[in-house]
Amino acid sequence: METNILIVGVGGQGVITVGRLISMAAIMASHNVVMSELHGLAQRGGSVSVNVRVGDVMSPIPEASAIDCVIALEPMEGLRYSPMTGKEAVFLVNLHPMTPISLSMQGKEYPPMQEILDEIERDHTVIPVDAS
């Protein structure tokens, strides 16, 4: 058995910390854990993602269709990763946006929260979370 969790957000939100906490909890429960981090422009408010794989796994990065849960600390980042995951993935989406630098640099306004949730919900189960 394996569980694949993808945590996404922007620099400064604690994406890596959340990944480490989930990993530590799984290790304390005697599960095998593999974690990978991608945080290129994290210090500048850029995109950050962490894969946490729990169970009988070796590779730190699962196939997109194997992701069971996406924890989106930043809603637009959740939307961005939505097409890259299988339809079975459940999305936990923080309701408090932190405008990604990519959106700011393009001079675009942040879309209404309900539009983001509706778009993700077209293909996935969405659980809105008041997390900030």
Automatic annotation (TrEMBL):
Name the Pfam families on file.
POR (PF01558)
User: What is the protein named?
Assistant: Indolepyruvate ferredoxin oxidoreductase, beta subunit
Location of the Pyruvate/ketoisovalerate oxidoreductase catalytic domain? 11-131
Q: What's a single GO MF annotation on this record?
A: oxidoreductase activity, acting on the aldehyde or oxo group of donors
Q: Which UniProt keywords apply?
A: Oxidoreductase, Pyruvate
The family database entries (InterPro entries) matched by this protein are listed as: IorB_Oxidoreductase, Pyrv/ketoisovalerate_OxRed_cat, Pyrv_flavodox_OxRed_cen
Q: Does the keyword Oxidoreductase apply?
A: yes
PANTHER family in UniProt: INDOLEPYRUVATE OXIDOREDUCTASE SUBUNIT IORB
